[in-house]
Amino acid sequence: MSPPEEESKQVLDLQKLAYECFRKAAERGLLAAKIEIGFCYKRGDGVEKDLTKAIEIFKSTKDPVAYYELGFHYFFGDGVNKNLNIAFKYWKKAASRSMTKAEYRLGLCYLNAWGTDKNLKLAKIYFQRAADKGFTDAKYNIRNIETILKQTNQSNTSAHHQSQKSCSIM
Description:
By secondary structure, this protein is mainly α. The chain has a domain at 1-55. The protein is 79% helix and 0% strand. The protein contains eight helices and no strands. Helix 2 (31-43) runs antiparallel to helix 3 (51-61), helix 6 runs antiparallel to helix 7 (120-132) and helix 7 (120-132) runs antiparallel to helix 8 (136-169). It is elongated, with a radius of gyration of 23 Å.
């Protein structure tokens, strides 16, 4: 066996060993191990890749990490029918448990009307929560929203003044 083949075999053996360790830990009730088993099935690490099984495991855990993953599956239609509304709901569940990445994703959902109505104020709130925890991309999006809100306020003020002028002419 060539060195790359030998290395690949070692990786596969380690993945199988890791899966077995996660399985035994999950049987003893360790939630994090159950989630890792879901990831093993998602990626095919130590077991045959099976997205359906991964999704079933994620749904059964009721954990923010699993909710976050489920959001991605529904957002991209990976192993399930694509559904932005369901993706939004799963990310909202994860965010309600203070998961930073889910808070950021909710900000994107509110910003882009993915699975929910567009709401710049809520987008800014969720981006701010993520930014306060060090999520750099969220800071960038907050600045963008502030710019959009300023432009919207300026447009509304200008339109209001125009309508007052029109009324005073009549």
